[in-house]
Write a structure and sequence with these properties.
The structure is a homodimer of 681-residue chains. Chain A is of the alpha+beta class. Helices cover 55% and strands 10% of the residues of chain A. In chain A, strands 1, 2, 3, 5, 6 and 9 form a six-stranded mixed beta sheet that branches. The first copy, chain A, has a three-stranded antiparallel beta sheet with strand order 4-8-7, with no helix packed on it. In chain A, strands 10-11 form a two-stranded antiparallel ribbon. The interface between A and B is large, with 150 and 150 residues.
């Protein structure tokens, strides 16, 4: 009796074959992809420590309720107290990021305290205020103080200037009165508010002598640290279940005439004296730093989470077999189907591209912040730093939007390539997707950020036209727009692709600028005209992000020592570029850079590159260095033993027990008397 | 003290304004979008009944655990017993679909019994077998018998021919022995298996006298209906948590030499005699019907679920205000931003297009099935029906894939337009998305289905080239390919768009065919050559789906009586067409149908149409006729009172209570002694 597919080798044999004759050194590749040997070694160390720490276990995580997840997350945060005190801040940040690879809720909940709340004090306080809060214990968080970040309100997210919470100076008592004037002003989505925080950094309208001075930050104690009871005048509620990140205890806060000392306003940039004098030391855009930091982190998240999802999908695609070619008794590995390669290989290239982008952006951010950190508030001259900050801001905004959208898309596509099993909670994809989805919204809605980036591009082009200098990252607006007759040399080389992207992007910026100008001429004011050209601005910003990502990939390649790793990465880079050309083909055709005949060739080249990548797909996922522990998905098993692991996981997570509702609901149905229904049909 | 945005009118005032001077009759529009007055009236009746039925309540649904959801879902199924006996099958199907609008888990779990399991018997049984199972009570489900559908296995999803479960004839006892030979053959994902079913329709390899006869269906009793204990030789396990649809008790089954009477094999198409003689009455593709039915239903699901999500997003977009234009104290409604219109209005057009497509497809399906239902198995001549079935199959496969992808995309985009609040479970988007996501995978992975559609297109083109007849739906392959010089007349009229789509699609089919032929010439066999051209096949299938959807929309318009409703729908149709042209712009540029100058005009026209649609966006969502009960999202409130409803919902769902882990986890942190960490920074 012969059954179908009886010739299939076992999944483990199938996987083992993929690691024979690897064309490059996996560790060397890992070092390149992680930026340095040190960075890779740290990640490995953290993953090892986590896998041995009972609090960090992941096995049961897909079946925890919201309440259980929250408690587990707080336990993890408590577990960090040791490292807060013993590790330098860079190492510690890296540790938190690695924990975040398997628990996005942890990353958010702890990040709200140590990034946003602490950052609000660090960036906003005077020297005396800083010392005061350090003495209170903010550097020791989660010990002694736990902070939350009270920015968004029920009716106001992106529009910080429109927030309605008020902080009114009471000169008699030398206090601010924090107040929520109506339902819409309720602080909403505040991570850590529902169950963790003792203090909140509240964004509120500064009101002095009946005059409004705009949104400032106030530190407000919200709970008695001994009893955890809310303090007088403070209502805290629980926001409840979310799409993902249920380990975060998001809450809402309403303040009813809550008093805090005048000194609890962060006074680095704006000072309010006892007598009600309001003075500004530096321009408010100097406070951009904290927001940019979050966005830089999200580009990194996009890269590492996409690589995690792709590792699972690609390993599963190697092991999974479906349909046999002709009369053969061996079924085909699904990653051997050209269409499956098409589904996954360009995404792998994109994840790697975003990984290089995140390293460059992080470095740039650190350089800019470093150059500012030596300066006191009075030395922060806006004129000196505005251009630098603007460039960084624009870069981070566009890349945050592009990368988080790309990552969410990659996760969902990766999930779909795992077929039905990708829908199982135990595949870990549902968690990855639902946890990640919020990144497209928070710290700047992606569409809004893209438009900001597009707005900057339009203004840079205006500068170019006026003969002014523009940052290196957009210098191509000068050259590419002046060589409007240029065409591809037909080589489809990296240089050829790069020139093409510069050309189409500068063309798209020109189009947006032209539409903007035409609306100005029709009498619209600047803001209105910018809105009217928003679709083209959006397109320009998207193209600019791709151009930047691609050029950055090429730059990273040029810094990589010659060798087999670089050779493979050149193919990855080329695949990324050509695939993006195909997606944006209309732009290339319109501009005349590529013609129809080029596109046909590009289509074939992409197919060929996908096949080439498929041949080293497993070594490449190995070079992402995600252990089975951190992947937490039987489908992504390193050794390929997918089905046994999956079956065991499902079985352990769902032990047999008595039927919970047979007697009450099902039995009466089965015992119902027969009814003749033949006539019904 | 003036606060920002103090001039904002209330959300309810804002919403009320949108319903003044509506340019069409909402009920008339509703009838058009629902196909008939009767269809709309039924939906209204069911929604009303549900809102008054305690078992159907939705208020608490976002906080139910998997176990609670499952019990609730079974209660809903039990609630259906009354209607099973009193309603005709079409009305009852409509009722289940309406329940499914708010509970996809119900739709699946009950559908598995009444659609798939019962369908397997209905389509596969002889007259005697049918009478036998009807006497057993299958028409009375969920009473007396509850069935599940045992097709997929752990290692085999799409590949039904590759299933490994065996059904071996034992002539001595006149029984089949059902057996699971190994782990990979475990029946997996079987909805209703874990907690509901008494019987399973098992797909297994028919084995007689050591010879394999392919995959057939066997009805296997799996539980004692009195005790609900599993029967001897049967292991049932629970698959546990999923991305969504946790109301469905998916399970796995392993059979160890389980015996069923020979008559429990469904013998309409293949018969096995007592002595082991195997005969075929009709070709197995005649069994396609059941699969097609599921796919037709998914096109309908895509339309109605997308309309539900868009109703929420559009209503929220009307009420939500953010940023004020200039010095104005009134903030702008976000749907008044051109980019927000761009995000939502084309999706609304797409949802309406898919709605019309679903009605046409359903009608076509019913017509074909109707024409076959009078025939006994021996009369089902493959030659007579193959072409008709093939056409329907290809149409359903492509539209299922296109529509479910489009719907998932529309839901995620709609969610994102609601900003942070779209991430709240109470917005209902997380549930909509996670429940819907599986539609891209089940009953045919979308990529596989698209390629099947592409394969058919290539073969239809081959027929055209050979001068053979092809179905009406692809007749354009004849005309469009012969007029390869044709260009747009520049009018951008519906006719112009239609001609353009026919041209680019036939061009894409030609490209796929050319690549296919070139691989044949290089010596590949037919299957291999089809794989090699899969990317172009995929593109052709996607374009064909769009072409079909657009042409069908135009046809539906032509059947709509003249009047203001039709006028608005013409704009919707034009927006849909032009937006799709923009998305597929590279195809149009390559083919020369549209030039660069057309695309610029199209970009502007889309902006204008988005603005026109925005003006009647609320009346259009009203014409989707989803009550607040069925929407179950405070963000989508009919009256616009979004924030009060949202706050109330969150508050009711998350009542205050004692802190669950303060003493154990947080208190020790807050009481930790101070440590001097200043040196660390």
């Amino acid at each position: 009796m012969s059954l179908p597919n009886s010739g299939n080798p076992s999944p483990m044999e199938t996987m083992a074959k993929e690691r024979v004759n690897i064309p490059f050194d996996i560790r060397k590749m890992g070092v390149i992809l992680h930026g340095s040997e040190e960075s890779l070694a740290l990640k490995e160390r953290f993953m090892l420590e986590m896998s041995r720490d009972p609090v960090m276990q992941l096995r049961d995580v897909h079946d925890l309720s919201k309440d259980e997840l929250r408690e587990r997350t707080m336990e993890k945060i408590a577990e960090m107290r040791h490292y807060v005190k013993t590790e330098d801040s860079k190492t510690f940040a890296r540790r938190c990021q690695t924990v975040g690879l398997s628990d996005a809720g942890f990353q958010t909940r702890f990040g709200v305290s140590t990034g946003l709340f602490l950052g609000a004090i660090r960036n906003g306080s005077t020297k005396e205020q800083w010392d005061y809060w350090v003495n209170k214990g903010v550097l020791q968080m989660p010990e002694r103080i736990i902070g939350c970040f009270g920015m968004t309100e029920l009716e106001h997210g992106s529009n910080v200037a429109g927030l309605l919470t008020t902080a009114t100076l009471d000169k008699k008592t030398d206090e601010f009165i924090i107040h929520t004037p109506n339902l819409g002003a309720t602080k909403w989505w505040i991570g850590g508010a529902a169950q963790s925080a003792t203090h909140c950094s509240v964004f509120a309208q500064l009101m002095v002598d009946g005059k409004r001075y705009g949104t400032k930050t106030f530190i407000v104690p919200i709970r008695d640290p001994k009893t955890f009871k809310t303090l007088p005048g403070i209502l805290i509620g629980d926001i409840g279940r979310k799409m993902g990140r249920d380990g975060v205890d998001n809450g809402y806060l309403q303040f009813s005439y809550v008093r805090v000392p005048r000194d609890y306003m962060m006074m680095k940039y704006t000072q309010v004296s006892k007598s009600g004098e309001v003075t500004d030391t530096a321009a408010p855009q100097m406070a951009y730093g904290a927001l940019i930091s979050g966005r830089v982190g999200m580009v990194t998240d996009s890269a590492v989470i996409a690589k995690k999802g792709l590792t699972i999908a690609i390993r599963y695609g190697i092991v999974r077999r479906q349909f046999s070619a002709g009369s053969d008794d061996i079924e085909t590995q699904i990653l051997d189907y050209p269409i499956h390669q098409r589904r996954l290989m360009p995404l792998m290239a994109q994840a790697i591209a975003i990984g290089f982008a995140s390293m460059t952006l992080q470095k740039k951010y650190e350089d800019v912040m470093e150059s500012r950190s030596h300066l006191g508030p009075s030395q922060l001259d806006p004129a000196n730093h505005a251009a630098e900050i603007k460039e960084l801001h624009v870069m981070a905004a566009g890349l945050k939007a592009f990368s988080t959208w790309a990552c969410l898309d990659m996760l969902e596509k990766s999930r779909q390539t795992c077929g039905g099993h990708g829908y199982s909670a135990y595949s870990t994809f549902p968690q990855l997707i639902s946890d990640f989805a919020v990144q497209c919204t928070w710290e700047g809605d992606n569409t809004v950020l893209m438009l900001q980036s597009g707005r900057a591009l339009v203004s840079y082009l205006e500068d170019v036209k006026k003969g002014k200098n523009v940052p290196d990252g957009v210098a191509y607006l000068k050259t590419a727009s002046s060589s409007s007759g240029s065409k591809s040399d037909g080589s489809l080389s990296l240089k050829d692709i790069e020139r093409g992207f510069e050309k189409v992007t500068s063309g798209a910026v020109e189009d947006a600028y032209a539409e903007y100008s035409s609306f100005l001429k029709k009498g619209q004011n600047k803001e209105k005209a910018l809105e009217s050209c928003s679709n083209l601005r959006f397109v320009a910003a998207r193209l600019h992000s791709i151009t930047w990502l691609f050029k950055n990939f090429v730059t990273a390649l040029n810094k990589t020592p010659a060798g087999p790793e670089r050779k493979v990465l050149e193919q990855v880079c080329r695949l990324y570029g050509l695939w993006q050309v195909e997606l944006e083909a209309a732009q290339f055709l319109s501009s005349g850079y590529f013609g129809k005949e080029h596109l046909a060739k590009i289509q074939t080249e992409i197919n060929d590159l996908c096949l080439a990548m498929r041949k080293c797909a497993i070594p490449l996922t190995d070079a992402f260095f995600n252990t089975d522990f951190i992947l937490n998905s039987p489908l992504g098993r390193y050794d390929g033993d997918v089905y046994n692991a999956y079956f065991d996981t499902v079985r352990r997570a769902n032990p047999a027990g008595p039927h919970p509702y047979f007697d009450r609901v099902i039995k009466p149905l089965l015992e119902a008397p027969p009814v003749n229904l033949k006539g019904k049909l």
